[in-house]
Amino acid sequence: MKPTNHLPIEVRGSAAHPLGMSPARFLRDYWQKRPLLIRRAFADFQPPLQPDDLAGLACEEGALARLIIHDEKRDRWHVNPGPLNEADFAKTPSTNWTLLVQDVDKWDADVAGLLDHFSFLPSWRLDDIMVSYAEPGGGVGAHVDQYDVFLLQGLGQRHWAISDDPMAPKEFRHDVELKQLAQFESTHEWLLEPGDMLYLPPGVPHDGVAFGGPCMTFSIGMRAPSQAELTGDLADHIAEHLPEELRYADPDLKPAKATGEIDRAAIERLKMALPFAAVLRDDMLRDWFGRFITRYRNAQVPAPLDKPLGEDALAKQLAAGAQLLRHPWSRLAWSQGKSGCTLYVSGHAYPATPALAQQLCEQRALGLTGKPNATERALLLALVNDGHLLPRKSRRR
């Protein structure tokens, strides 16, 4: 992390600049470089979700929820991974517990609306909104995330402590199932009020604890695949496209000096046999990354229609003013290559036009004003039948 003595670590937001500065300046000076606290990033902020609604969601079978209780006297942590029920909440103490629910934006449209404030980032970079509710003293302990996160205070107060010391220890405790830091010494501490937002780049140790009363925090997290994940998925993609006859070859083989040795010549032949990203065609890289990034960390996939819809039936619905709603679990990206435009949806590729591809990525509810061409009609029909777009009658006022 670069020195921060010439840049403020705390700024004040406004309606015009929720980040306390322009997005360009934020990306230049802070993004993936240093933490930033933005006071009143969202003035008069009202949480789009209430605690009771979050608890109800945590009881749903498909929700990713955890109930974490800290026995402060013995420093023991209990994690209930869910799905939860009313009895689980009835057993909670008056303090020192927190409820975490991931992917809340997939379940609640108002929560998903918070993502509109982060449109200065590539849409495929956004992962999910995790919502945490905690009673006083509740938290998950000091830890480190390997992705960028915006921590938006929604209800009550939370005390945050961070360390921007690049030499801070990162070893984990071995006596708890949570990935907590064995040692943590803060360099900055704040008490956040509703509407305040703390940005943390990857690798910054931090600890958030509910203060005073009930507390709710909205964590807008980024997708940050590791090099191991990128390499593994790219290798699988390459393997699918390499012809069977391309194999390890050794026409220069000499008599073995030591039986069973993988010698230097063998290593060099392996380097010749293995393709790497640097030598791949741009179109192949694009195709792999589009499929990968729209599939990455997607917990569920929309189900195709039991009875496929015909082109005429879809056209009739659209002509009658129906909107196409994007399925909340569908992730989209698109690219333009020499062979044309491709839309990527949850790991699948579809021929598209740049205009419609961009529109689909930008809008959760699509209302067509013009007449789609043949490519666009085929795309919309495929997305509807694959479950990624849901036709709904438009609401009339």
Give the helix/strand layout.
Elements: E1 10-12, H1 23-29, E2 36-39, H2 51-58, E3 64-71, E4 76-80, H3 86-90, E5 97-102, H4 109-112, E6 126-134, E7 149-162, E8 188-192, E9 197-200, E10 206-222, H5 227-241, H6 264-273, H7 282-295, H8 311-319, E11 323-326, E12 332-337, E13 340-345, E14 348-352, H9 354-362, E15 365-366, H10 374-385, E16 389-392
Parallel strand pairs: 1-2
Antiparallel strand pairs: 2-9, 3-4, 3-5, 5-6, 6-10, 7-8, 7-9, 7-10, 11-15, 11-16, 12-13, 13-14
Q: Mind explaining what this structure looks like?
A:
The model has no long low-confidence stretch (mean pLDDT 90). The chain has 397 residues and is of the alpha+beta class. The strands form three sheets. Strands 1, 2, 3, 4, 5, 6, 7, 8, 9 and 10 form a ten-stranded mixed β-sheet that branches. A three-stranded antiparallel β-sheet has the order 15-11-16. It is 23% helix and 26% strand. The chain has helices at 23-29, 51-58, 86-90, 109-112, 227-241, 264-273, 282-295, 311-319, 354-362, 374-385; strands spanning 10-12, 36-39, 64-71, 76-80, 97-102, 126-134, 149-162, 188-192, 197-200, 206-222, 323-326, 332-337, 340-345, 348-352, 365-366, 389-392. It is built from ten helices and 16 strands.
Report the helical percentage: 10-25%
Number of helices: 10
What is the distance, rounded to the nearest whole angstrom, between the alpha carbons of the first and last residues?
53 Å
Taking the sheet with the most strands, its summary is: 10 strands, mixed
Elements, N to C (H/E): EHEHEEHEHEEEEEHHHHEEEEHEHE
The rounded Rg comes to: 25 Å
Give the DSSP E fraction (strand runs of 2 or more residues): 25-35%
What structural category arises from helix and sheet content? alpha+beta
Number of strands: 16
Poorly predicted regions: none
Average pLDDT over all residues: 90
Can you tell me the overall shape? globular
